[in-house]
Amino acid sequence: MKVAVVGSTGMVGEVMLKVLEERNFPVTELIPVASEKSVGKKVKYKQKEFTIVSMKDAIAAKPDIAIFSAGGSTSLEFAPLFAEAGVTVIDNSSAWRMDPDKKLVVPEINADVLTKEDKIIANPNCSTIQLVMVLGPLNKKYDLKRVVVSTYQSVTGTGKAAVDQLNGEINGDDSAAKVYPYQIFKNALPHCDVFADDDYTKEEIKLMKEPKKILGDDTFNLTATAVRVPVQGGHSESVNIEFENEFELDEVRKILSETPGVVVMDDVKNNHYPMPLYSEGKDEVFVGRIRRDLSQPKTLNLWIVADNLRKGAATNAVQIAEYLVANNLV
Questions:
Q1: pTM for the complete prediction?
Q2: Which has fewest Cβ within 10 Å: 6, 31, 192, 238?
């Protein structure tokens, strides 16, 4: 299996290489790809060094799969060129997610929609992935009516420069470039991505639209507020879910504990609940603080945490690739 990793020098690209290695994906030839300024540099994979190549050379090499994490404009320009060369592209940007002709996939939830004809497959937004891992199985059982989600997102979701800003502020070093309009240390910014005309941010709009496409269900309502917090790795979400049907808490816990990729951490008597500190470096989605909403019937509150660079990005993309290989779709 010849695999190109496009954006291999970026924060997510580096984790993709790590995840491919950890999961022992059947890579027979690795093709690391990055911007022109990085061509000729080296990346490490399985204790070996590989030379970064250009987009043009990567397309000419005709990999079986190209995993993209290089930004929306790059994906819009180059993903179709890879696809025309017969390469299956798994794209981590927002470029193709809401394209009606492209599949938006979280493997545990909807991998069965994939076919050999899908040459550009979209990886969802990091916050969406961990949310639908919980909404998916609960929707099947109880039928979603309305979801209210508030996120607490780590700075790694913005990239390396944001991590540098946070660490610089922690250390009293003012030399790091400012990625956010305000300091992030000792602060919380209700501002993830840019604001749209309706005063929602792009991150919030993704959260409101993507789950419906992944679940293949547009009958429920969803609203979101996305907040950036001074955490280095791991996104958290407070989620309020109103169902059409009644539920029992023990059954909710059982359904979630039996969902592949979900870990229930819900023992408040022993202070056992999900935290970004615990999720960092792990591939699972952690859920806890599972309780009834006492203000209205058929409504549930819970707390979801996941590593945004792994299940929220790299791991999910590699899992899509694994599904394609296992089902002879590449």
A1: 0.96
A2: 238
